[in-house]
Every structure is written in structure tokens, then in C-alpha cells.
Amino acid sequence: MSELEITERSLYPALKKGLEQKGFASITEIRSGDKQVDILVKKGSESFLIEVKVGNPQKKLLEGLSQAMRYSRIYETNQIMVINYPPEIRSCDPEELDETVLTAEVNVAVFTEYMNEICKTPVYKLFDELASRIEKNQEGRSP
Asked: What pTM was estimated for this model as a whole?
């Protein structure tokens, strides 16, 4: 039997679950024509696009940003994120995958109304921070 390799798609369920835990709604693999966004995320009236990449961050972050920018025109949002996992995620123990997806240090590029950063962080912290900033913004708008 050949060695199994985890793909980007394998990461989507754990990311979706992590988003839902922070109050986001999400749909994976949304297609429009020949274009397919990895994850479309909503929180209230806000929409975000997430592209998930695995591999060399210098190459994959740029590739993901390019894709997300193109998709942002289709989905009419300028709020995009790229989450870039290290190649080692491909050999993660399947029993540990869900936890590893959310806790592994990843390279992220986030360009939204709430955050504009390129950094290295665990995904759960990214989702925490984004949810917190959205909630603070919404509280500031409440009468």
C-alpha cells in the first residue's frame, strides 16, 4: 500500500469547524464558472474568502493571494485571507488532524476591514482575533 498524503481539501472540515466555533458560517469549495474558492465565510453582513495552501510560503502565499484577489471580484468582497500550512501537515496523523489544523503555526496573509497582516500564527488565534474585532466593531455601531 502506498503512503497516504493529506491534501488541502483534507483541511477544510477542521477549518470550517473552527470558524463555526467563533460564530462564523462557512461553505467550502464554492464554484463559479471555472473558479473555485476554498472557503466562503460569513459573519453577519460581512463576507470573507479563504484560500488554503500547503507548501513553501514564499510561493504559496503569493499564489493564494492572486487567486483570492480574482475570486473577490466574483464574490463581491474585498476581504481575503490566505492560510499557508507547512508541507509537514501532509504527513500528519489523521487522528490528530483536526487539532493540528487549528493549532499549527501557519503563515497567513489577511486583508480585511478588520485586519491587514502577514504573520505566522495558529489558525485558532487568527479566528479568535478576527471574531473579536468584528464584534467590537458591531458593538461600536449599536445605538
From this structure: 0.91
